[in-house]
Amino acid sequence: MTTTVEKTSVAADMAFLIVDDEPDICWSMERILTKAGFRALVAGSGDEALEFAKQAPFALAFVDAKLPDIEGIELVKQLQQIQPGLSVMLISGYFYEDDPQVQQWMKDGLIRGFISKPFSLDQVRKAARDLKS
Fold first, then answer.
1. Is 80 within the bounds of a domain?
2. Residue 125 CB: number of other CB atoms within 10 A?
3. Each residue of 17-43: pLDDT tens digit?
4. 10 C-beta neighbours (distance < 10 Å), count
5. Is 7 a domain residue?
6. First-to-last C-alpha distance (Å) of the chain
């Protein structure tokens, strides 16, 4: 389910990274974003996401909180070391937006926002559009 990064095809403000180990989640998020006119690349693991981040800049990353090879928030920290200022939307079926830990991560600036699974089309579109404003 990997997509190759093409460095010259899209400006950084239009490239989004989706990191989730669930193929159906990746497929639906990629579809939502591309239909809304954005470019979305999919990584099925933390290692793959880090490799993508080394190859090309991203405007926003949607990162699953629970990945088999790394905790999502640890991945966020590593992605932001590679790309300082990278905006991140944490996605999870384990946490909720009002969870104290999620609130602390937002307060600390680690994540821009949170989307709980199952998510709606509008939540994903809004996160992408809000970044442009």
1. yes
2. 16
3. 999 999 999 999 999 999 988 899 999
4. 16
5. no
6. 30
